[in-house]
Amino acid sequence: MDVKYLKELYKDELLDNVLPFWLEKSQDKQFGGYFTCLDRKGNIFDTDKFIWLQCRQVWLFSMIYNRIEKRPEWLQCALQGAEFLRRFGHDGNYNWYFSLTREGKPIIEPYNIFSYTFAAMAFGQLARATGNQEYAEIAKTTFDIILTKTGNPKGRWDKSHPGTRSLKNFALPMILCNLSLEIEHLLDKEFLQKTINDCIHEVMDVFYRPELGIVVENLTNANELSDTFEGRVLNPGHAIEAMWFIMDLGERLGNPELIRKAAGIAVHMAEYGWDEKYGGIFYFLDRKGHPVQQLEWDQKLWWVHVETLISMLKGYLLTGSKECLSWFEKIHDYTWEHFKDKEYPEWYGYLNRQGEVLLPLKGGKWKGCFHVPRGLYQCWKTLERLEYNG
Fold it and tell me: The domain that contains 208 carries what CATH number?
């Protein structure tokens, strides 16, 4: 592996291609916030604003301002999005809506817990950039609300009938692993440690099933497997992404055994999810090999592959695992060949099973300014550490 070449490749792609795309194409200079529904060339095809994508972009531009360089245009991009969110993104009590009109009127109620998690991330990172106490308070208040919702994330908008088949989902403890480090500067140290311990336990001791060797998406509230559509579904990308969050926590805690375990799970989930016929990682699978209910199960998605790049590179850096290195190289080749648009900035998000572009959009309801730039940043910085270590 040519570490220096790859470091420059990821760095240049971030700074010269992806960030300028979002800076120039997505900002709504009239009403504030960001357009995320952008076609291949960056033209706007829908003006609805989805809160979690708005928050992710505030976080991303705050993060690069804090960690790469204090460019005023990056901070201004984050600030204008945050002010739009502060005014219109919630109901007045920091219950964050799912989506708004372009002008900021609510369309969909606050049913989605990830509107809250990314709001906490966004305002926490922006508070670090600006020293603004109001932003810090928004982040802390939102985080407190998240913790009250962990047992019932959708609240009164939950469609399931109570008491029949209550399942808990992997996504929330997974994202809390990342969020706890994101806003640690705002949290009491003892409380932070307890939150981290709880998250690690849920991810590594509950949702990871050693008897199967895999991470499952849903369990009963008694932490048991469920032989149902929801109980059998696997999302390899989710599991692999979570492992780099765990590796970051392991590094922070000085726990090499936790890091090794996470790297090993990442490798196994990549092996499990890899499409031997066409390459790439499947979106959804059934742990018993039954047909899955998600019709998009065999698509190849951008975020799955970008997150796998991060996990494998971190696994190699922190453990020296040759398996992690081999998987990084394999995923790198697939990702850069299939997801990078060779003519226009930013990357494709959705491929069919064969690896052909399914939707040529660069942003939409689910894809925004997040996984690609965050992944490029994480890989660049991990490669930088590898180069330094020689």
Answer: 1.50.10.10
Q: Residues near 77 by Cβ (< 8 Å), separated by ≥ 6?
A: 22, 23, 27, 57, 61
Residue 25 burial (CB count, 10 A): 20
pLDDT bin (cut points 50, 70, 90) of residue 157 is low
Q: pLDDT per residue over 252-278, tens digit each?
A: 999 999 999 999 999 999 999 999 999
Tokens found for residue 340: 């990078």
Q: Which helix (H) or strand (E) holds 322?
A: helix 322-338
Positive or negative: CA dihedral 92, 97, 102, 107? negative
Mean residue pLDDT of the chain comes to 96
Q: Are 121 and 86 part of one and the same domain?
A: yes
Range of the domain at 139: 30-153
Going from the C-alpha of 359 to that of each of 19, 203, 300, 302, the distances in angstroms are 21, 32, 11, 12
User: pTM for the whole thing?
Assistant: 0.97
Structural domains of the chain, count: 2
Residue 373 lies in a domain: yes
Confidence check: pLDDT of 314 > 80: yes
Domain end, chosen from 153, 183, 206, is at 153
Quote the Cα angle for 324-332-258, to 5°: 25
